[in-house]
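Repro case for the chain-ordering regression, as requested:
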Amino acid sequence: MDILHAISNSLPALADGMVITLQITAVSVVAGIAWGAALAVMRLSPVKPLAWFSQAYVMLVRSVPLVMVLLWFFLMVPQLIQGLFGLSPRTDVRLVSAMVAFSLFEAAYYSEIIRAGVQAVSRGQLAAASALGMSYLMAMRLIVLPQAMRAAVPALLTQGIVLFQDTSLVYVIGLADFFRTSKNVADRDGTTVAMILFAGAVYLAISLLASGAVKVLQRGKKSFELI
Amino acid sequence: MIEINNISKRYGSFQVLTDCTTSVAKGEVVVVCGPSGSGKSTLIKTINGLEPIDKGDIRVNGQSVGGRGTDQSKLRSKVGMVFQNFELFPHLSVLENLTIAQIRVLKRSSDEANACGLKYLKRVGLEAHAAKYPGQLSGGQQQRAAIARALCMDPICMLFDEPTSALDPEMVNEVLDVMVELASEGTTMMCVTHEMGFARKVADRVIFMDHGEILEDTSKEEFFGNTDARTDRAKQFLARILHH
Amino acid sequence: MGSTYKWNWGIFLDPVSTGEPATYLDWLLAGLQNTVVLALASSAIALVLGVAMGIMRCAPNRWLAAIGALYVALFRNVPVIVQLFAWYFVVPEILPVHMGTWIKELPSMTQMMALSTMCLGLYMAARVCEHIRAGLGTLPRGQRFAATALGLTLFQAYRYVLLPVALRVAIPPLTSELINVFKNSAVVSTIGLLDLSAQSQQLAEYTGQPYEAFLAATLVYIVINWIVMVIMHRVERKVRLPGYIGSK
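-- result from build under test --
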């Protein structure tokens, strides 16, 4: 079939696009969780300015569309990078601005997940750790956060799958991720219908597989529940 | 050892503790009882600073709790506390529960900490369970482990906040037995509890609280023996609780 | 960077350089109008469809439950931009010829609005479905039995007994979805529909003042967010059941 030929001929390009998609996903998940955890700890901290900053950050980021965030960082990041490092190749700048945008954006969502995880840890745990002489930060680090993060893993992974799908929005800044590449191939070959359906099928398959993996992980995780 | 002077505390508009004064001498065992909501749990939590006070002063071994010169963390490490809900750390093994504070707070080496942990696990009869996780233990076993965890810090006194209230009846005695042994060894103890049998056996003094005030603070013999001289509310409480 | 950029907030009142009798602010407001219309229309579709799907997923009939589950699995696991392109490029081609042609012959604006509304509506419906399902799940099983024991049909049971409570329980997550649809609507800029985000890009291009353009659009989104939350908060308080778990 012509369409299958068209797709198989474009596989290298599509693979490159998928690599970009996965790169953005991977970097943003790691950076997003790290910054999100910091935001969560800040939000729960007794130091008022930190708590206020964290709350404002999350509220702000969550009220703005991802499209706008991507546009913003595509506007600002190139100038920042040029200021710091001198000129750099254009495509790298799109990728970097996308990674920065996603990391900072998703961190707000990750911080809410982690915060919920921390609040689900019984307050008695913090009291018991304090009673043994641990400082607030030590108690958070050794006792509360480990439990919170373990509880939050399924939600964090699910958010990661959402992130994976959201990367397709880099279309608006012209970055050649998997979807944009599919569209480019479609425009070149005139196979729009097939390519869009193909792209949709790929995202569907990967997302379903990943969700299934998360469910399996959840089932094997009951070891830390107290009687 | 423990001095509580005129302490008061409120939560918002609710007065939890009003002008409470008492003390615990070295080697003494003091039982605190009273109806729920009387503030007895809050009282005991003020001693190691888990609950801050609004007025008054608390001293442990001469050091002011919450005072500016006091190292809170160090003070807490020296005051052992056992909680109603055990509060073992579920992501650590039983032995790790006992050693984590020894290593991180007391800065002991892990060999020292493990040896001490195993020693106290043996004392409470749990050495076979050292590698297990809290989720695999019964309530009684968890509470005994929690007592061992507090003992590993070589505390100068032990505070118990309703240690048997969350246990099924058949497990209450295994925990009380450990506490009776501690008392007989001369440990300074303050226990919030409903277990009057335990109080009659090992307490030196009994404190009765109601609505945030200390209404009775007498010797065990006086409290249980001379019921006529007790305040009305104490009499009501005794009548209800001693019916079991 | 900052020192070389010249801020000019006056551009909003400048007439547009294409010659049409409008200011740049008018363009932005036109975009806002499209965004609001899209969001509200999609929400209406999503609410009706989502409630129906949510009930289907709870149905004792295995086929109905499976259809609901498939729907959710499909619409939640494909990115919204891919779904939009599918509606815009694929649907007119795979529909029966006369329907496809009819769509393609619609005025461009109407075509884009209609297809975008369908896309956003069905996408949102999948999420609404899950919230309704969760809301129905919080009801004790006996509620349905009590209703049918009184002689109510299953339809009546859902309409008069189960849904009223489930919907109240679902108000917080549904509020999130309402906020989400306003944000998701920004994706229509990719097919050329001039919503608020697209207009901000237009402004940036035509005036050379991207910071002012983006800031204005961002601010509007934040205000929309706030308005939705205030309205839904009022709605929640108004329909609250006294003494029910979750109400204060």
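Ordering looks correct now. The interface with chain A takes residues 45, 48, 50, 73-81, 83, 85, 87-91, 100-101, 104-106, 133-135, 137-139, 142, 146, 149-150, 153 of chain B (CB under 8 Å).
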